[in-house]
């Protein structure tokens, strides 16, 4: 297994292709921590079948674990974080007063090196459940780390219109999305309930497709972490801590 042009960084998917297993010892390779956000809470259709996003998220997990097992990946399901009827974001609480589940998630977001955002498309937009969950946390938790966009649909477009809006959303949140994106049309015909490929689907082709985006995510995550260890970005650019007016021009 070799470095890329002496950079100390290694790819881990086919096409690049190095697989990093948990027992491999590779000088220069840094284990990354990624969160997969599953951004749907609907238990009815559309899209059919209900919770179609679970299949897509599980497929992403399987791909990452098989092709790049040396990294830590955790699934964050929006359904596990019921939001209050009256919106009060996590950063508005005193830390001792915030709901414990949100405190725990905030710590996971802060410690992660990158994010994979899985969303359906509703009315040409990203899932409101995903936006609502992410909006609970300040951008300083996400900033200077990369993200990857994964969209899906029961129809033929694969959620690509939602993905366009997600690029703006995630950029403002501070976790800049990598250029490659994943779109899964007719996801119910591609993935089974456990995330495995349906009969007739080619696993290598699908994992190569997913891997192009994940490869970019891992490369940027390793690069960002390496430089952040040298120069703390939060000291170079002050985080907004009080009001949005802190970003105003003179």
From TrEMBL:
Cofactors: FMN
Which Pfam families has this protein been placed in? FMN_red (PF03358)
InterPro entries linked: Flavoprotein-like_sf (IPR029039), FMN_Rdtase-like_dom (IPR005025), NAD(P)H-dep_reductase (IPR050712)
Its cellular-component GO annotations read: cytosol
Give start and end of each NADPH-dependent FMN reductase-like domain. Answer: 32-187
Q: Which UniProt keywords apply?
A: Flavoprotein, FMN
Q: Which domain of life is it from?
A: Bacteria
What would be an example GO MF term here? FMN binding
PANTHER family noted in UniProt: CHROMATE REDUCTASE, NAD(P)H-DEPENDENT FMN REDUCTASE LOT6
This protein's name: NADPH-dependent FMN reductase-like domain-containing protein
